[in-house]
Fold each of these.
Amino acid sequence: MVLSISGVVLFGFIAFLLFRKDGLKVSHAAVCALFGFYLSGTAVAPGIHAGGDKLAGLLGGITL
């Protein structure tokens, strides 16, 4: 992969700044989408996926 972890950090930082400064707009959503796309190609992607599965299982097991 051409884009390394520094690109992921860069997109994450940009998304955070844009969200805090002006709220989320279409251009900000595009940066967030790029952040997610590049994050999925890193070594932390399986951990994030497993955490999402655990959270979905936890929320699915809640009975009211």
Amino acid sequence: MAQRYVRIKTNLGQVYYGLLQLSRSVQVLDAPPWLGGQPTDLELEPDDYLILAPCAPSKIIAVGKNYANHAAEMGGDVPTEPILFLKPPTAITSDGKEIYYPSQSERVDYEGELALIIGDRAHNFTSEQARSTIWGYTIANDVTARDLQRKDSQWTRAKGFDSFCPLGPWIVRELSAGARLQTFINDEPLPRQSASISEMAFSPEFIVSYISGIMTLLPGDIILTGTPAGVGEMRIGDRVRVEIEGIGSLENQLVSPPLIT
């Protein structure tokens, strides 16, 4: 099994990066792994920590319509250049945490995606340079208030609510080019989404190169690489699970927003 890099919070509130062992204990690192973090003597048992989203990026850049079948279901073609948008870091939530249904929306959709973790500062990188700066991979759900996306002239509100970027549960360094991405709702036996990541219109290294020509990428930044066909509505109480071969699964439940007191 590939090494799984996690970000955790201890029962005392300390936040660490670490390596998840088969026993579910965590070997704590002295820094984020993409910054050269090394194992320490501290090992935490499963009852001593909570798994957080696997990184805390300065920004989240996402790519729209990067699978031809999804572009078609949205009523268009794959663009000639990547369509980019941003999600705020405050949208991040971890595996097992709730997605909150915003009161402004009447339709919230799931969008299972492969996420890239940037390992080095990248500015105007070639595709070859970009390949080496992709430090690892994790799973994301680009949750979208679809009615607001259609209503607004841009996507910030529809994509930016708190909890609208489930991420995790961990990072792996290597991933097969033919790994399959699938999204399930509740206990349905058949996936709503199912595609090989090789079906992307723009490859991960091209995406990183393209973005680095627009904005400087920093270590720990996240890039969402687009979603395949099969996006659809979630209702309050639904559980959505995104699986990617070679990584694992990310599961979250859609719930009503907490009452303001």
Amino acid sequence: MTVMIDKSNRSIAATSVQAGDARPDIPNLIAQALAPPGTRPVGKLLRLRELQRMNFSWPALLNDAAHAAAASRRPPIRPLRVLIEDDDPSPAVESACRELGVSLVNTPTTLLANAMVERVFVTIRKQFIDKLPGQSRSGHRGAGAGEEDLILMDDLAVVFDRWVVQIWPYVRGDY
């Protein structure tokens, strides 16, 4: 999971879910953040019925109308500076930032420099990942979890974005 955080108000401006060790799609995150409310694509859940049958913590996330209403209130964010951990950003990232007039800054690899980001991910793990069907508190598949308890990557991306839009603004974490 990759998130773009607005440090001024600690909102999550954009999300991305990739399989394995894929590099984050930073130009896509910037485009998401800049998109006016209501113009961002709303992902469709592929296994909606399976998610409804699971012990799913947030039934509102499965409701397209509830998500559309919440998404229309999501403000566009105009990033002036994007901090990345990658020492070697891709040419696409550099080009997108240059084209949009966004400064691209590599963060130092110290815990202090990334403290807010690390706390956001701890809160996401505790408040979102650990509550997904088939997950244990450690973030690994729970004992006895079968294939029917797993969420497809595409559905996970949609559910995570919906969680960020509908639930995150009300989460009081340690960030």
Amino acid sequence: MNKRNKQGNIPAKYATPKSAKTVLSEKVEMITGEKADSSILNSLDADQNEKLNQLVDQLSESKKLYEMEVQEITQARIQTEMLQATLEEEKLKLESLISEHKKSINETEELRLALFLKEKDTLKKNEELLAREAEAEAGFISQHSQSLALLTAELSKVRAEHMQSLAVSQSQFLQTFNEVDEQRKSLSEELSAEYQKIQNTKLELEKAKAELIERKAEISAQESIINTTVETRKIQLEQQFELQIAGFESEVIRLNSYRKRDEANLLDLKKRLMDFSELERALKQKGMDSAEELLLYVEKIESAIREYRQKLAGRPVEDLEDEVEHLRDLNRSFEEQLRDAKQALQEANAERHQRAIGIMERENLMMKNRVLQQHNDAISLATEQLKQEIDELKDRQQGQAVFPALTRMDTIYSESPSTQPVGALTEFVDELQLRIFQSDRNNPLYFDKETLQLFLGGLAMSQLHIFQGISGTGKTTLAKAFASAVGGHCTVVPVQAGWRDRDDLVGHYNAFEKRYYEKECLQALYRAHTPTYKDRLNIVLLDEMNLSRPEQYFAEFLSALELSGEDRQVVLMEDSPAKAPRYLREGRKIPVADNVWFIGTANHDETTFEFADKTQDRSFVLELGRNGMQQLPSTLKRSVIYSFSSLQTCFQNVISGHRADVDKIFNTLYTHEVTNVLAKRFGIGWGNRLERQARQFLPVVVASGGSMSQALDHLLSVRLFRNGKVTGRYDTKPEHLSELQEQLSDVWIKLFKTDIAIRCEERIEQELERKEIT
């Protein structure tokens, strides 16, 4: 959460700590992948919340153990695969050694064959030696002796070499054979050990797999228990609420009975007022000659009460409550005195019958009874007034919020969600088209890429959009589907025909109730400043915007949207309340954030008004026609929240990158004859606002996959060639329109070579046809 606050540039002192139920909801979402039902969590008491928290912690630990076991199994599987790879390498090495051993055996056989040939040659030489010996016996003894000596020496040498070579070969063969045999034995042992390890690892893996399946079953059982517990608790809470509702209804019936009783008491009091003459006689008996003296006495009592109230004003609520209890005790004592008086009256009446007491004494007792009753009523009234004043003091101490809905948002929307940055605008258009298409499974929504490219350009150009077109072309649907696709928020505000001022749009302040009645538009503007929606796209959809005149009820917003920074705000109240929402400026001004767009839908018929120039010149106008349906991929996209800051950065980079191209276009327009024709024949020039909007609109449309010609054609058609400007006027002539059409075609060729201004040309052609008919 702290990291999120740092990313959203939220000061630490404004970062609201998470509540226990918010942490519990996040734990449930982390385990199950789905958000928990906030109404069920809010209805749980402390014990149930603690038990559910413990159960969720157990599930979280179980999930962590499960993930650790899965990770260990995965690592064991990787090690097994590595061991298998090692065994394959060792097997290849063994096969290589075996092939080398066979090669050495072949070499040994070749050596044996060479030795055999040498022995054969030696035998042949022995035979030659024997032949020479035979010749020596025939008379060549001396010569034979010499030859024999040479042959004997040569034979000895050959035999020595042969024996030496044979010994070396045999030793090499034995050594190689021993080495190969030792290697074969060691490799066999290693293979057996590795095979045993693999078998053990396999058994462990199977055992771990069985444990995982068992653990998964336990987790599923625990989840089903949790679901059952939640459902049971939900049913219990519903039953409890039904009992509470029944109790409230019985309380209402009881209060109605009390009201009827009070009405009967009121009638009784009216009857008592008719006995004023008797009261006057009683006053005379008390020494009061007139009602004025009674009034003076009452004023004296009231002044004493006021002094008492002034004293009470500076006293704490606890002292007042003690005083009320004291007054209640006095009231009870007076009631007891009243009962005693009634009893005395009854005794006096009995005594009168018994002793024939005179009528005057009986009237005196009755008068005393009435006076005591009046004292009792006065004390009761004073007690109720004091109680009411104490309640008012408590309310003032607690402080009632003037903006209740906005104040609640400070708590509800205090957490920043994770967002995804916007990449290239061309890819963003493709993503939007697919997400809008899948926003309603029962009714797929298709908007072509050109419409979405112009819409994105409009987002960069102005925060006020007007969608025009016949009914059923998707004006309202596009705004709502776009907000859903980008993870933003869309607030629908149905415009009424009787709207006249800003209060009809944002609400009004009730001075008597000390409360501001916040309408949906005001809540949407404030919601855009909260951490939850600060980096998201927010849309205020003014449905049927021209049922009333926007220049009246939307006038302050038209002025605010022309400003920037701290000046872009709307004043709600003259004075700031004591307890104001966090994101109101000075406690009484609502700022219009950059991440808020007003989108108004408009139909043109006898029940609507035409937009004034001040509204159309400040807005982006998009005329929607009936779209053809194409089938897009059916694979559902995961919900995502696109970052407003990344989209704004993308817009700024694109605008600065195409600055030179836009400069070239306006330099050509300013110096071309089309400017003179617009000024001389139609009284229209290139304004600073139009140029500023074009520098924001044209680059974004091009970066979204559109063309500069398409973007400029749309902008000029809705700003200069709309009704009331070039077209729809009675003071223009056909030859002027033809001249403008010719110059427009010429400047378009200079700017874009082969392209033409399709929308502007169509408007001029329609106006020429209208002129011919009239």
